[in-house]
Amino acid sequence: MKHSLIPLESLVEPVKKQATDLQALREKLAAGRGPAFWRTLDEAAESEELREYVEQEFPGLSGQIPQGVDRRSLLKVMAASLAMAGAAACTKQPKELIVPYVRQPENIIPGLPLFYATAMPTAGYARGVLVESHLNRPTKVEGNPDHPASLGSTTIFEQGSVLNLYDPDRAEIVMREGSISNWPTFTGEFSTAAQGIVSRKGEGLAILSGATTSPTLINQMSTLLAQNPGAKWYIHEPSVNPAIRSAAKKIAGKNAFVAYDFSQADVIVSLESDFLNNGPAALAYARQYAKRRAIDNGETPVRLYAIESCPTVSGSIADHRFPVKSSAIPAIAYQLAKACSVAAPDAGTPAPDWLNAVAQDLQNSKGKCVVVPGEFQPESVHLAAWALNSALGNVGKTVRLLDGVEPDNTHTLEELTTDLNNGRIEMLLILGGNPVYTAPASLNFTTAIRKARLVIHLSQFSDETSLWSHWHVPEAHYLETWSDSRAFDGTTTIQQPLIAPLYENKSAHEVLSILLGKPDQSSHDIVKGYWQDQLKGANFEAVWKTSLHDGWIAGIAANSINAGGAVTLPPLQQPAISDLEVVFRPDPTIGDGAWSNNGWLQELPKPQSKMTWDNTVSISPKDAQRLNVTIGDMLKVTVNGRTTVGPAWILPGHVEGSVTVYFGYGRTASGRVGNNIGYNAYAIQDASTPWYAAGSISKTGEHYRLANVQETQTMAGRNPVRATELAEYRKTPNFPTAEEPPLDKATSLYPEWPYEGHKWGMTIDLNVCTGCSACIIACQAENNIAVVGKDQVARGRHMHWIRVDRYYAGNDIDDPEIYNQPVPCMHCEQAPCEVVCPVAATVHSNEGLNEMVYNRCVGTRYCSNNCPYKVRRFNFYLYSDWNTQSLYGARNPDVTVRTRGVMEKCSYCVQRIQEVKIQADKENRPIRDGEIQTACQQVCPTQAITFGDLNLKGSKVAQQQALPRNYGLLDDLNTRPRTKYLGFVRNSNEALSGNTRKS
Amino acid sequence: MPQLFRPSSNTIAKVSIAGVVLLLGSTLAVAYIMDRGPWTTSVRIAPEQPIPFSHKHHVKDDGIDCRYCHTSVENSGYAGLPPTETCMTCHSQIWSNASVTQPIRDSWASGKSIEWTRVHDLPDFVYFNHSIHINKGIGCSACHGQVDEMPLMYRVNTLNMNWCVNCHRNPAQFIRPRSEVFNVDYAYPPNQAELGAKLVKEYHVQSLTDCVTCHR
Question: For chain A, does the N or the C end have fewer beta carbons within 10 angstroms?
Answer without folding.
Answer: N
